[in-house]
């Protein structure tokens, strides 16, 4: 392990040990101060955050308003870390009462869980999806399956894996090859729940969609799994209405189209998922933690991945039998499973044109 990695490992270990000892209000204040310091340095990540927010707020947004929004967004992003470090000592009451879940949204979730079809919860880089996961585990009384990057340094990656597994999550490695998609499919066919953070995948396997009038790519995994297994696909929006409280919104199911070949179905459903992400981001832009390049127009053409041709979904296509009736696990394809991507978090070195090579966030590290 390099000296830098040892420092990072020590820093994360110290944070997990110390932050949970602070009173909650004091802990939030400390991480707000860290966020403000990072924001004031105008790192490449902060500048990219503002470029992304400008698409949401409107390109005529005054500079002062944009800067105020990016400052709040940095605080929101660092709040996630504060809560991750404190989560091991949260009581069930803190987890459940700290979530604002409207009854009508809860009814949608209950219906999906009771359907027996399996449930796919598709989240974005908003709010604290670990808190949402803790809420779900306490609500259902059982864990769920998710996918994570292989992060570096290894010791910090193990800390995050142990942390999430300790919460009750089954965490699969994103670099696990074809077996990952197949495992997710089997969990869904067994009626289980899969949660995927899928609002960014700039690799060639990403599904090209339009958000805020511009092209980008999101993970095709949620839609591909729904087509493959017949599971219920529910978009989920997260945001912070106040300190110590997180809003959870569950949107209606994105159905599998009755007609079209599988790639065309995945393309249609991915765009609908992107629309759901965009609606949540537009409602709460300062809780969108996107500190890396997100829109294709921002990519360096020389570094952008080559993309296979997108299906043309407007033309008539021949109907296809339901995917779950035709495909076995052996047909499940890898590299389409959305995963918790922490590469956009504050304090990292900027590598925005090289997606899926992320490391865990390092608050305070120079860019």
Number of helices: 12
Low-pLDDT segments:
312-331, 334-345, 347-367
From the alpha carbons, calculate the radius of gyration and give it in angstroms. 20 Å
Number of strands: 9
Q: What's the rounded overall pLDDT mean?
A: 83
Strand order of the largest sheet: 1-9-8-2-5
Q: How much beta, percentage-wise?
A: 5-15%
Brief overview:
The protein is an alpha/beta fold and 367 residues long.
Write the layout of secondary structure elements.
Blueprint: H1 3-18, H2 24-40, H3 44-57, H4 63-86, H5 92-97, E1 99-100, H6 103-114, E2 119-123, H7 129-140, E3 144-148, H8 154-167, E4 169-173, H9 178-189, E5 193-197, E6 207-211, E7 214-218, H10 221-229, E8 232-242, E9 245-250, H11 262-283, H12 323-326
Parallel strand pairs: 1-9, 2-5, 2-8, 3-4
Antiparallel strand pairs: 6-7, 8-9
């Amino acid at each position: 392990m390099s000296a830098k990695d040892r420092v990072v490992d020590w820093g994360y270990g110290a944070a997990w040990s110390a932050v949970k000892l602070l009173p909650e209000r004091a802990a939030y204040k400390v991480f707000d101060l860290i966020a403000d310091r990072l924001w004031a340095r105008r790192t490449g990540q902060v500048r990219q955050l503002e470029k992304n927010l400008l698409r949401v707020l409107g390109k005529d947004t005054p500079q002062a308003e944009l800067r105020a929004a990016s400052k709040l967004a940095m605080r929101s992003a660092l709040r996630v870390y504060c809560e991750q470090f404190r989560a091991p000592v949260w009581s069930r009451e803190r987890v459940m009462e700290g979530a604002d879940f409207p009854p009508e949204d809860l009814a949608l979730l209950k219906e999906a869980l009771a359907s027996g079809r399996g449930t796919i919860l598709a989240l974005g880089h908003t709010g604290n999806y670990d808190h949402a996961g803790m809420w779900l585990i306490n609500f259902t009384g059982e864990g769920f399956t998710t996918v994570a990057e292989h992060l570096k340094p290894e010791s910090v990656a193990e800390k995050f894996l142990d942390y999430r597994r300790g919460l009750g999550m089954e965490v699969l490695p994103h670099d696990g090859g074809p077996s990952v998609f197949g495992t997710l499919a089997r969990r869904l066919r067994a009626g289980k729940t899969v949660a995927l953070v899928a609002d960014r995948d700039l690799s060639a396997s990403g599904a090209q969609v339009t958000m805020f009038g511009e092209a980008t790519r999101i993970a095709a995994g949620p839609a591909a799994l729904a087509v493959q297994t017949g599971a219920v696909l529910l978009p989920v929006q997260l945001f912070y209405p106040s300190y110590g409280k997180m809003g959870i919104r569950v949107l209606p199911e994105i159905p599998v189209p009755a007609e079209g070949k599988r790639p065309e179905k995945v393309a249609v459903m991915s765009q609908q998922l992107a629309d759901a992400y965009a609606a949540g981001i537009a409602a709460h832009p300062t809780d969108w933690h996107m500190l890396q390049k997100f829109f294709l127009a921002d990519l360096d053409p020389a570094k952008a991945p080559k993309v296979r041709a997108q299906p043309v979904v407007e033309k008539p296509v021949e109907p296809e039998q339901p995917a779950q009736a035709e495909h076995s696990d052996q047909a499940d394809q890898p590299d389409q499973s959305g995963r918790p991507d922490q590469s956009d978090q504050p304090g990292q070195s900027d590598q925005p044109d090289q997606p899926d090579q992320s490391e865990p966030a390092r608050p305070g590290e120079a860019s």
